[in-house]
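Handoff note, outgoing to incoming analyst
You'll be picking up this chain. Sequence as last confirmed:
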Amino acid sequence: MTASQETLVKALIAAHDGGPLVGPVDAADVPADMTAVYEMQNLIIAGIGPVGGWKIVAGGQGEPLCSPIPANRFFANGAVLDAKTHRHFIAEVEVAVLLGADLFGKPNKFEVEAAIASVNPVLEMVANPFTDRDATPRNLQLGDLQSNGAVVVGPAVSNDIRADLPTLAVSLVYDGTLAKDVATGASWDDIVAALVWLAPHAEARGFPLKAGQTIITGARVAAPLGTADLVEGKLGDWGKVSARCTY
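Most recent structure output, in case you need it:
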């Protein structure tokens, strides 16, 4: 990373906490490839604090996209979030897994499954630190921890949900009104395969997967937040997660 890129990283960290919006960004400071994207993510984590979990897209084509998430961006079910200061503008409902054991080296699918303590519904709040998000290059958004602003973790659900995941009815509700729903998504095998890939990747970057971390596996449903007060994510009849937002 160049000195100007390090300055950019500091500006992104500040913007997520109410500092000035970032942009436009010199093309030379935009990560040129995924190696540079992950270098930027590492610098952001170094400037914020310890890793509390990861986000990864399960069930996609090719190599998964991922990012560490700082521990201070994880919240318990029912949390009150300062959406204005932290610039949350989209809410997503996702399926997450909570690790009950560390995952080092190159675990196989059986070792990954054994390390998973529970399946949990989560809300990921997407945040925008840029003056013009639409004009911001994708690699810069990926470098910005894939636009993560916060993760709210709901109570664990029954492990029986695993068989229903490919056709799971997932809904996002704002102030009691359905914002969006869907009934397709990554399977349990997709999620396990994503963690098989993630474990050595995370360790190579210096942030190994550890017991107590939460791994979110990609948006099932998402919608602009607007000024919604109560945000609820529902995994069919299996369980739900909620948060309140202030502006």
